[in-house]
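Q: What structure does this chain adopt?
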Amino acid sequence: MKYAQLFIDEVNRIHEANTYKYETAFTTPQAGEVTVNGKRVVMMASNNYLGMSNHPVVTKAAIEAIKKYGYGMASVRFLCGTQTIHLELEKKIAKFIGTEDTILFSSAFAANNAFFPSLLNEKLGFESYRDVIYTDGLNHASIIDGMRLCKTETTDKKIYKNNDLAQLEQLLETDTNAGYRFKIIATDGVFSMEGSYGQIDRLVALANKYNAILFVDDCHAIGVAGKTGRGTPEKFGVLNKVDVLTGTLGKAIGGALGGYIGGSKKMVEYLRQKSRPYTFSNSLPPAVVMASIAAIDLLMKDRSIVTRLHDNTAYFRKEIAGLGFTILEGDHPIVPVMLGKASVAQEMSKALLKAGVYIKGLWFPVVPKGEARLRVQISAALSKKNIDHALNAFESVGKKIKIIN
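A:
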């Protein structure tokens, strides 16, 4: 009983801090507008960047997949969990992101957890060895957890300040003659709390200069960044030049679940044999696979979807700044509206919901103390009317609680 009470006390403490409260639930599909507690509100907190989670082409593909291929695979890939559509999706992703091959996972979190230990925990013919990972200070939790799975006795982890490539190069220069077997530079393509980009072109140059492997998690960039949505390599002009690309099918590409690792054919084949999250996890269900194929096909045929996302983002960023709100500069659909105090972010989030806008606040420990914010996420599914409604709500609520004049 004393252990149960410890958990009860901690749950109460968390709720008092208002860290995570699930007070809202939707009764409609994810879209530009959703219904919450019987009220229609504008959705500005979703990773549904391209509006594909409820796109008729995507949902039709999912329905047809269940009719043709069934509901689930009931197996891992290497036993009887591979259909021709899984192979088709892997080839299609590889072509889209500019890698030789890709391997599917149940999530991008699983993909990131798979990569680092699969490569760095194996001797690969070496009797003794030491590896190093240079990781950006704002990297996603999945990268951090993937690194934690690496053996400490053989893997060094060195953190450089967010996007501080001068510090990164200093670390690389210092380690030139350190005798490391593998040197991996790991970064997010987009830092999801900031809406800022990793400097992928400069990282490619550094990786080449110091004979390092460049690993980029492009989850918030695939379908979003670049003129055709091919992610940060396209945006920074280095398609086909990033060694390892991970990404998700759970955000812009359909919005369901699933992740992937893209890279050379030899690396992908190695991961099929060595990555535990791949070997011991059920295969993606046919509905997700076929819907993801449809989403990528749609993206490749209709570039106006990405253009609409970029236009919506530029419009909102310009107008919200014009109202007097402080935002983190950039051009990504993640638009952090900086408020400072957690209590202010909580109050404003609740007030905006009453005004017809669904958005969530972020505060410590998700972001540093004193940097509480509302993380707006723009979508191609939003109409100009939706965005204007949100801007009007921001203005009225912001004036009411004296964030703006």
